[in-house]
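User: For my dataset I need records formatted as: sequence, then structure tokens, nothing else. Please produce one.
Assistant:
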Amino acid sequence: MTGRPADAEIRWPRRVRTPGDAVRFIDAVGYCLLFPIKGLPLPSLYYAVAQRSPATWDRYTEKIWHWKDDLGRRRRAFYAKYFKGRGTFISAGLLAHFLAMHGTSAAADDYERFYSTGRISDAARVIWEALAQHGPLATLELRHACRMDSKAGNARFKRAMLELQRLLLVVHSGTQQETAAWASGRFELTARAFPRQVSQARSLSPEAARAAVAEKYLHWHPQAEASLLRRLFGWSKAETVAACKARGMA
């Protein structure tokens, strides 16, 4: 594989036309990008809908842009900025494995423990605490609750939100019209949005979780080399070899 988006796309039997089709696609592939991204060898929902790459702003883009909000709000799939900070779907069936892989099957009030052990920054702790206390909040509401209203505060907020999403601790949960401009993203703690998956993750070992994630990728990309998995997921060489051997893939 070269890493170009088209090389990683899934040749899905039918064009994805409805939100239900989108959920079936996400469930089947396990995890995918919202849009194809150069250098990220993952399938995308855009390609499944438009059947072309790269993405442009068109009727397909507009359609899936609304779907990501609806699917997240209705808990039909997990959506956050995960792979390299880009929009990512993870199926409800595989989410527990991703949480176990990262060791982030956290309770809603675990922010102090994660901060004290150095797993999150102080800004991330403040955001997490605000969501724990107030429930799901839209971007401007959340920034206000965290006292990150200034330009510098907004920069801290964006970095911390990305940090929380890449650890799968916070999930996109629809949108809210806060101004006359674009609707703001609405965020919730994964612990409250997907409690069953968080609970399941606690009974999974990181090794078993990595094996399941690798197996899903290699099911759709059987020619992919172990080194690609290592780069994609940030695993060590030993973790990658073990993940492949666990499912008889090495």
